[in-house]
Specification:
The complex is a heterodimer of chains A (286) and B (268).
Chain A: H1 2-29, H2 37-53, H3 62-82, H4 89-110, H5 127-148, H6 152-162, H7 164-169, H8 174-200, H9 210-223, H10 228-248, H11 256-275
Helix pairs in contact in A: 1-5, 1-8, 1-10, 2-3, 2-4, 2-8, 3-8, 9-10, 9-11
Chain B: E1 3-7, E2 12-15, E3 18-23, E4 30-33, E5 37-41, H1 48-56, E6 66-70, E7 73-78, H2 88-93, E8 99-102, H3 114-121, H4 130-134, H5 136-144, H6 148-163, H7 178-192, E9 196-200, H8 208-224, E10 230-234, H9 238-244, E11 247-252, E12 255-259, H10 264-267
Parallel strand pairs in B: 3-12, 5-10, 5-11, 8-9, 9-10
Antiparallel strand pairs in B: 1-4, 1-6, 2-3, 6-7, 11-12
Classes of the chains: A mainly alpha (286), B alpha/beta (268).
């Protein structure tokens, strides 16, 4: 039962993160933010700093959750402003660079193995309560996304994504619309990162490296870009695969787990681009 | 007649230090007035499309100013100093009742369906604010009650599409042929109610009878709106231009000249 609860919590946290990557950033702006995991890292790092370095206790720990959203928003201004000059493929480079820099920052602040023993705030001490909080956040996001397609902004984002010049001619402020979605996506990812730090009680920098970023991007392609069902299935799949691999290679071969996950997800990326370019649930190609 | 755009007589456009065109109109500025159709005529490479891009803010002139008016008030001045390739097109397309254009190569977001493609042109810029879409009530309003104005708009769009033979209005743009996409992009302009529409060779790749229909529609577009909407049109076929335009600007020999084909009396 505990195991199931733990897996479910992990699933919801990754679902929030994948939602921010798949349905907000890639889905609405059309830019491949491969290094989006940097904001996940920022959220986790900030939570670690607040609790381990500054020793916040009690209800003050909730500040970490809100603080990580704010810090993510501040850091998200880098990609949001860079889209003024860079478009399409170049955004990927910016995104990867941000990811690497943030990873260095994490290692610098928290040491090579990251923070450990991050305390949970009162009210979130059990896995059940953490699961409830993350599931509520995820449900709100899903509700929002499913209503969004009836909104005027839905076709505006479609036009912006598909044809920037056309959008400009229609008087749409392309940069504003894109920045908003990048900032929103980063804020959501920051919240997910903070929840993840509470969940795992640690911030392992290996969780935020480029390997992991590519894996999560592959999951988006696998689930289907901008598809809610795709996000849910992909995060479920990710959590299950990690669980299975970890239990197979338990003990002596633990170090192989990350390598094998990378291989598996690399293959998934290749197969899904070749055989279902729209993902299993998506309507739109990569 | 109110002026919408004044293009100053010293306007020149250079392309990699070579003169592409300048205005040759006895030191008088070129005026775009309300309720008129302007034709642009000239050989290939004479800068017709560049001229449209210039009016639309995509490129910048080397000298001179383009002044945009709304109800006799200056709303925007496009010159070398305040030009920005990122924001000028956005600002200009939102000026006075909206300035819309079509590209030579038709481009419409291919995921939209036909009705959405038309309605998206007549969008209200105020509705894309951050707080508007973060407010859940606005989102719910969107599904529960579609306002009558929006319903009227949708009916109008369906009627226009039916008139031009698009029976299945839920088709995606990506399912259409090249010519049909071109036609849709012209219909977008007709639907836009913008105060100025810039048409870059709208009749290429379109069936002759449909062109006749479009010409009637374009004439109606300027006359029906109490003479507030104007059109600038690039066309290679002289016949169509003479039928449509009140004034023809000829691009030749690196000069823009006015050929006053019709004057006020002829029109009546």
């Amino acid at each position: 039962m505990d195991l199931l609860l733990s897996l479910l919590t992990k699933f919801f946290i990754y679902a929030i993160f994948l939602f921010s990557l798949n349905n907000i950033v890639i889905g609405k702006t059309g830019y491949w933010a491969i290094g989006h995991i940097a904001y996940f890292a920022i959220g986790a790092l900030f939570t670690g700093v607040i609790t381990v370095i500054f020793h916040f206790t009690g209800y003050y720990i909730y500040l970490a959750l809100f603080g990580s959203i704010i810090i993510s928003i501040i850091f998200s201004l880098i990609p949001a402003l860079s889209i003024l000059r860079l478009r399409g493929d170049f955004f990927i480079f910016v995104s990867i660079t941000i990811n690497e820099l943030i990873k260095l920052l994490v290692e610098l602040i928290s040491g090579p193995s990251g923070f450990s023993n991050i305390p949970r705030p009162p009210g979130l001490t059990t896995d059940l309560s953490l699961m409830c909080l993350s599931s509520i956040i995820f449900l709100i996001l899903v509700l929002y996304a499913s209503i969004f397609k009836y909104h005027n902004l839905n076709y505006i984002t479609t036009i912006v994504r598909q044809n920037e010049e056309l959008a400009k001619v229609m008087g749409i402020n392309v940069y504003y619309i894109r920045s908003i979605f990048i900032i929103l996506g980063c804020a959501t990812a920051g919240a997910a990162g903070s929840l993840f730090a509470f969940y795992s009680n640690s911030t392992d920098p290996q969780r935020f490296n480029i390997n992991e970023a590519v894996i999560l991007f592959a999951l988006c392609a696998f689930g289907g870009i901008d598809s809610i069902r795709g996000t849910i299935i992909a995060s479920m799949f990710y959590v299950l695969i990690l669980f299975v691999l970890e239990s197979i290679f338990k003990g002596l071969f633990q170090i192989y787990t990350t390598n094998i996950t990378s291989i598996i997800f690399g293959l998934i990326l290749i197969f899904s681009i070749n055989f279902f370019p729209q993902g299993i649930m998506g309507k739109r190609g990569l | 007649m109110d002026t919408i755009i004044k293009i100053e007589s010293n306007l020149t456009f250079e392309y990699s230090n070579q003169l592409l065109f300048k205005i040759d109109n006895n030191n008088l500025p070129l005026l775009v007035e309300q309720g008129k159709i302007y034709g642009i005529y000239g050989p290939n490479g004479s800068g017709k499309s560049t001229f449209i891009n210039l009016l639309n803010g995509f490129v910048c002139q080397s000298e001179g100013e383009i002044i945009y008016y709304s109800q006799n008030k200056v709303t925007y001045i496009l010159n070398k100093t305040n030009f920005s390739s990122l924001f000028s097109p956005i600002i200009i397309s939102n000026l006075n009742g909206g300035i819309r254009r079509i590209f030579q190569k038709p481009s419409i977001a291919s995921e939209l369906n036909l009705i959405e493609a038309l309605i998206s042109v007549r969008r209200n810029a105020k509705k894309d604010g951050l707080f508007d879409f973060l407010n859940p009530f606005n989102l719910i309003k969107g599904i529960v009650l579609q306002s009558t104005k929006e319903k009227n708009e949708i009916n109008e769009a369906i009627n226009l599409l039916l008139e031009f033979g698009f029976l299945n209005t839920n088709k995606k743009i990506s399912e259409l042929s090249f010519g049909q996409i071109k036609l849709i992009s012209v219909l977008q302009m007709l639907f836009s109610k913008a105060s100025l529409i810039l048409l870059d060779e709208p009749f290429s790749n379109i069936y002759e009878d449909t062109i006749r229909q479009l010409i009637l529609k374009l004439k109606k577009y300027t006359s029906e709106s109490q003479g507030t909407n104007s059109i600038i049109i690039i066309e290679h076929k002289r016949d169509y231009l003479e039928e449509l335009a009140d004034e023809i600007w000829t691009f030749n020999d690196k000069k823009i000249m006015i050929e006053n084909k019709k004057n006020g009396n002829d029109k009546n």
